[in-house]
Amino acid sequence: MTIGSVDNQTTGGTSKTSNTLSNPASAADIQNQFLTLLVTQLQAQDPLNPMDNSQMTSQMAQISTVGGLQQLNATMNSVLQSQVANQAMMATSLVGSKVMLAGNNLSLGASGGVQGGVVLAGAAANMNITVTDSNGNVVDSIPVSPAQAGLNNFTWDGTDGNGNRLPAGNYSFSAKAYDNTGAAVTTTAYGYQAVTAVTWNQGVPMVVTSDGKQHGLGDVIQLS
After folding, report:
1. Gap between the Cα atoms of 19 and 17, Å rounded
2. Which fold has domain 98-223?
3. Any idea of the CA torsion for 106, 107, 110, 112, to the nearest 10 degrees?
4. What is the pLDDT of residues 203-223, one digit of tens each?
5. Where are the domains of the chain?
6. Is the peptide bond before 24 cis (omega within 30 degrees of 0)?
7. Which helix (H) or strand (E) segment is 220 a member of?
8. Which of 21, 63, 154, 200 would staple 34 via disulfide (CB 3.0–4.6 Å)?
9. What letter would DSSP give residue 172?
């Protein structure tokens, strides 16, 4: 499969792209060329030493195979174009939404709480989430017991350990989890980010989050 050039254009918050796929000779064109050469070869052959029937059969089989591969290539190109279009529509529909991505950032607003997530490699008897401010000071602790293997969502209410409301801004968190034998369970932090735009990277749609970073659709594990 041959993919031609990809032109990127940006309009507002969304980048647009046009994919140009190469158009090789069709299967019918190849077969017509083959038949023309075959007829010419038959006309020019020595009547006393004609072409072997087995050779002709072999050549016919080869051109049939080439034609089938050419049709398969055209079908795969069509499937690829359809897949790219579907991904583009999905990506643009995420603008204005919040997506959960790998990272430990918590962006606290002026009111309400903020959500995060922790993926555990296995079930944990207890897990503790520590929230810190931009200076690295611990401001709150959230116990979770028990915690399941896989994704565990949590909500921080935006207050410190004494229940005092903290100012809006960027915070972060870390998690430690242990199973019922006291052994540590591997944790991976996830946080929500707002999708502000969509761009294309070599023909692949990418979501752009409020921190200016680009992420593939496969990096998103949850929507909000």
Report:
1. 6
2. Immunoglobulin-like (2.60.40)
3. -50
4. 788 888 888 888 888 888 888
5. 20-92, 98-223
6. no
7. none
8. 63
9. E
